[in-house]
Each structure stands twice: as C-alpha cells, then as structure tokens.
Amino acid sequence: MGARARTRSAAALATALGVVLALAACTSPPPPAGSEPALAKLITRVERLPGVDTAEGEIRQVDAKDDPQNWITSLEVQADTTDLAVAERIRHTAARGVTGTTLSVTVDVPRGRASAPVAVDPMDPDVVDLAARLRAEPFVHRLWATPSRSTIWLVPGVSFTDAVAQARPIVGDHPASLIRGDVSVGITATHPGRALMRTIDGFDRDGDEDVEGLYYSPGTTYADAAQAPADEYGAAAEPERPSLSIDGERLGAVADVLVRTKDEAADAHRAPRTAFSVGLDGTNGWLGLPLDAEKPQDATAPGTPTSGPSPTPWVAADVSDHAATLRAFLERSAEAAGVPATVTTGTEQCAPPGSTWSPDATGTRATAFSIVPVFQIVDDAQGPFDAVTALWTSEGFEVSGRAMGRDYWSSSTDADPATASIRGTVDGLSLRAESVCVPRP
Predict the structure, then answer these.
(1) C-alpha closest to that of 226 among 176, 300, 169, 325
(2) 3-state secondary structure of 418
(3) C-alpha atoms less than 13 angstroms from C-alpha of 52 in its C-beta half-sphere
(4) How many helices and strands in the chain, by DSSP H and E?
(5) What distance, in Å, lies between the first and last C-alpha atoms of the chain?
(6) Which pLDDT tens digit goes with each residue over 122-145?
(7) Can you list the alpha helix ranges (DSSP code H) found in 55-208?
(8) What are phi and psi of 153, to 5 degrees?
(9) At what angle do helices 382-394 and 320-337 cross, to 10 degrees?
(10) Nearest-angstrom CA–CA distance, 305 and 415
(11) Which is the most buried residue in 11, 119, 163, 230, by most CB within 10 A?
(12) What pLDDT digit, counting tens, does each position of 348-384 carry?
C-alpha cells in the first residue's frame, strides 16, 4: 500500500466527497442520506488492506432522467500486488455496501511473472476464480472479467482458432469475447464454428488490408432458447441469430469468401444461420449461402410448431418524393466534390416516430447511395471530402458520430435528409443519405 494511501484520512475523504457531491447537487437531487460518509469510510478501509495501492469512488444516479431515485456507487481499486487474493479481502471489506445505493466494484491487478493484468469484479468469487484461470493462459495479453462477460485481449501471434480452443473449456457457459486490434469475436460452446474461425484467421493474418474491422456476435442456439423463460405475454423465447460485421476495402472479395464458408451449427439445425454484413453500404448475406439466397426461415428449430399470429408482412409506403430529395442532395454533394456521380435510391423498413424497432415495424424510409470517383481528378480525397462536408454544414447538418471510418451527420431540422454519412474508400467518396421514417398510411 502506497504512502499516499496510508496517510489519507476518512475526514479528508469525506470533505473531498462533500465538495464534489455539493457541486453535483446544483443540478441533481442529493444522494441518499448517509451514502457519502459510508463511501468515505469504505475507501479508507479498502486502502488499508494489504495489496491495495489506491481506491477511488463516486456516487451517481443510475439514470438522472428515467430512473432518478436509484443510485449506484462505483468503487475503483488499484492493487499493488499481482496476487488475486486481494480480491477476496476487498469482497469481505465491501460486503455491507454503501447506504441507499447499489455497489459496483472493480479491482485492477497488474501483470505477474506468468499472469496477465486483469480488471475484475471482486464481489463475485466465481468470476475471480475464472479470472485467475484465464490470466495464467499464455494466449491472454490482458483481461476484464465481470459477472456478465469476460473480455480477453490476445497476445500477438496466436490464432483466433487456437485461442478459442483454449478459452472454451475455461469459460464454459460464461459469455466471453476475444479481441485483438479491430477484430472482436464473441464465443460460446458452439459458435463460431471451425470454418468461420479459419476464415476470421485468414482475414486477421498479416493484417489483411481488405478487412479494417470485424465484429462477430455468436447469438444463441435452439437449445438455449428452449431453456429460456417465456416473455411477459407467454410467448416462447426465440434464438438470437449469430451475426458478422466486416468493414474494409475490396469488400466484394470478402463477401465471396463468406458465401463459401460453412456454418456448421446451421447445417446441423442447431442454430439459425449466421447473417453477415460487409461494409456499411455493402453486401448483406448468409454464411455459406449464395448472395442471392432468401432469408432463411429458421427462427425456430425445424419441426417446432408455431403459435400465435404471423407477423404482418412489411409493405413499403410510397416515398418517391423523399427519394427525389435524397437524390438531389447527393448530386449536389458530388458536384461540390467536383465529379458527377450516379446515385442509387431505395427503401427500407423503419420504426415510425414514437415507436421502437421490431420486425413488425411499419414505417418506410427512402435511402440513397453514391460512390463519387474523386480520384479521377485528384490524388488525395481530402479536398473533395472537405468540400462535401462544408456543403452539408451550410445546409444545416451537424456531425453526430463516427464508426468504422464513416462520419455520420444529422439534420438540425425535421426536413430530409434526416441523416447523411461519408467515408473515403479506394474507389472515391462513399456517400449515403436517409429520409425521415414515414408511417404506414
């Protein structure tokens, strides 16, 4: 335990917490009575434990807008030992919690001679035991373990196939993800299958330039769904479809690989077939099926009797006027970039304002897409990119986010386009626009 931690007093901690919480009180209700001194005392007790360097905590509302009456105490502990036994000492010390709040604790334990660094929830002994086993494995670079999920960052050199084979017997049915760089692979006892693992390794090996990011969610099997409780209306649970999302260059070649990759669990009728999406504006399909294949009718296991009414088929509304607005918008954008471009429009299902997305959503929105071939006139796409975004700014758009190399913009009005996005590719500038969601007439 460091000198700073040893000399810190409960009174000083209570004073500091009081200042922070007093400032917060200017804009939010005060925390539960007695919670501040309880947290200050807990921090002092934890910092006195052998193997603890520092401890810091805060008290906050779970959701100031929608759940203002519930409060959470977050306690972050930094260990100065590599021995995970410190987690048990913290667990016993924090067992009483903090008055009027839900306590969440994380302890960071540094790397040992033969063990990876780990951030773990010390309040769950099973999670601590799991973390102890995983951090000793040579394929683990670092680890984060909670009751809901373990996230494992891999060392360089090990294949995802080998890492999954070593991790599965340890994690069992505890949800886990393996990460290295921009590749994230969720794993279960059945997913991903061997063929997909070989494909992922092929994309990951030697920094495949065609793949800039990959995310895989393993979904659930028919057996998992059969063991899950019914929903509030008594309907049986359905399995979650596995999904694979890839972003990068030469995406047509990537899609060609995926349609030739077997989905062993789907072929054996143990789970729905894996859906894949290649590029934000690219190809969608089903692992192991031709690109023109229809969506598999595999939401339930073969031979399972259906119950209840079938969902109403979605029928697209007439949004041709919205599509015309989007087309003109992307044509203006191409003109600003300095190169004429072809614009493709379409429609897609959406949830009307005031509702949430579901397969039964009845709304329709227009979409438009274009690749502006700026490399016909320039060697660097930054100038045309800036010209397009300057146009969007002048038309009332604001940056709303960024993901997988694509910048997302939103309109500051209720007019079309509602959203637009832009990304540089080897072929030029990839532009996309979407209209507002139009309810069914």
Answers:
(1) 300
(2) coil
(3) 26
(4) 12, 18
(5) 68
(6) 999 999 999 999 999 999 999 999
(7) 85-93, 125-135, 160-171, 194-204
(8) -90, 130
(9) 130
(10) 46
(11) 163
(12) 888 888 777 666 778 888 988 888 989 888 888 899 9
CA distance 41 to 37: 6
Separation of alpha carbons 93 and 71, rounded Å: 20
- With b meaning 16 or more CB within 10 Å and e meaning fewer, what string describes 321-331? ebbebbbebbb
Residue matched to tokens 């490399």? 375
Contact present, 319 and 347 (Cβ < 8 Å): yes
Q: Is 302 exposed, middle or buried (0-12, 13-18, 19+ CB in 10 A)?
A: exposed
Whole-number Cα distances in Å, 49 to 5, 90, 414, 436: 10, 8, 57, 57
CB 272 within 8 A of CB 242: yes
**Rg for the chain (alpha carbons), in Å?**
26
Using DSSP bridges, classify how beta strands 102-109 and 118-120 pair: parallel, antiparallel or unpaired: antiparallel
Residue with token string 């099926």: 289
CA angle 257, 262, 264 (to 5 degrees): 155
Contacts of residue 166, Cβ cutoff 8 Å, sequence gap at least 6: 137, 139
SS3 call for 371? strand
Look at strands 118-120 and 140-145 and give their pairing: parallel
* Type of residue at 254: V
Domain boundaries, the chain: 1-109, 320-434
Q: Summarize pLDDT for 227-269 with one digit per residue, the tens.
A: 888 766 677 778 899 999 988 766 778 888 899 999 999 998 9
| pTM, 2 dp | 0.63
CATH number 3.30.70 given to 1-109:
yes
Long-range contacts of 69-72 (CB under 8 A, 24+ apart): 70/102, 71/31, 71/32, 71/35, 71/100, 71/101, 71/102, 72/101, 72/102, 72/103, 72/104
Which two three-digit tokens encode residue 137?
Answer: 């494995």
What CA–CA distances, in Å, run from 117 to 77, 81, 152, 165, 186? 14, 11, 11, 21, 21
* CB atoms near residue 414 (< 10 Å): 8
DSSP string spanning 58-87? EEEEEETTTEEEEEEEEEEEEESSS-THHH
Cα 3 to Cα 7, 73, 80, 110: the distances in Å are: 6, 25, 12, 19
Q: How far is CA 158 from the centre of its chain?
A: 24
Cβ-Cβ contacts under 8 Å for 47 (sequence gap 6 or more): 1, 5, 6, 8, 54, 55
Secondary structure letter of residue 347 according to DSSP: E
CA angle 239, 243, 244 (to 5 degrees): 165
